[in-house]
């Protein structure tokens, strides 16, 4: 393989992104892939396989990528991205580490040779998830060990939060630290000695409990009762893009299974207003938090528009009578995919006897519902029945 000299690191990253195939990454990491017709599927790097392995698909030289890069997306959990995000999520790497790993894959042997050796890695059964009460206790203790930096707080204030609201939602800024030392602090505060089944925690080779650390914003993910049962990471990549990933501990940076490590799966995030009989649906935990405050309504965030199947039961559980679907105002193929899932969700909700509308607004007023509410208020949003 030819080695090029780049003018700067951005040139190098762009060349890697455009030149490294997702098939090569899967082969190197041992991620199972299969082809159905003309479409490629792989085991999702976030939640694993769905049995048929047909929820996470990828496309070579994707039309949506101007540079000809490969792109992937999981319709079950909503995770998506390019070769860099695949490496980051599969191996729990930060962006610079993912770039180095990509360079290693490109340099180790030709892609033709790599693609000829697709092996399934040894599978270690992940432990059963800890109870919601235990996860809530541990995650609250973890969040309390960090605080928001000035820049992160300013970003949230710009999105319309007050300082009191930011504190109430529990956002925190994690940084790289000694995971063993952090876990010892959490054990001391909570009285918990075993962290089995708590995503983000694992046992080292000498049997000590440790937690994964990242340079990332920690976003609490709450169940219908307000308990924190998972965490999302918002990682700022070098190129300025924001990458979202679940806080998990299934594998180390080399792809090896971690003892005691686990994944939360794809979780719904719910914000309750007990007086409300309307449930709004969007994608993005912070978006749901902010929008719920603006409208004083129940909100649920789905981890990907295709992951809607738990919504009907949730709506029934909170005794909602009306549901409003408020996904981002996308265009092109993305809009077609969103429309398909909205229709399927609406049909499932109609079977529960609920009224269903979609929220619409002028695209120039903002992409997400939180943007529109923050800039123009609820008067800029109208509701349209889904037939």
Automatic annotation (TrEMBL):
It holds the Pfam family Zn_ribbon_DnaG. Residues 278-379 form the DUF3854 domain. InterPro entries: DNA_primase_Znf_CHC2, DnaG_primase, DUF3854, TOPRIM_DnaG/twinkle, Znf_CHC2. Signal peptide: none annotated. GO terms for cellular component: cytoplasm. GO terms for molecular function: DNA binding; DNA-directed RNA polymerase activity; zinc ion binding. It comes from the Bacteria. One of its GO terms (biological process) is DNA replication, synthesis of primer. Keywords: Metal-binding, Zinc, Zinc-finger. Residues 15-111 form the Zinc finger CHC2-type domain. This is DUF3854 domain-containing protein. The lineage of its organism: Bacteria, Bacillati, Bacillota, Clostridia, Eubacteriales.
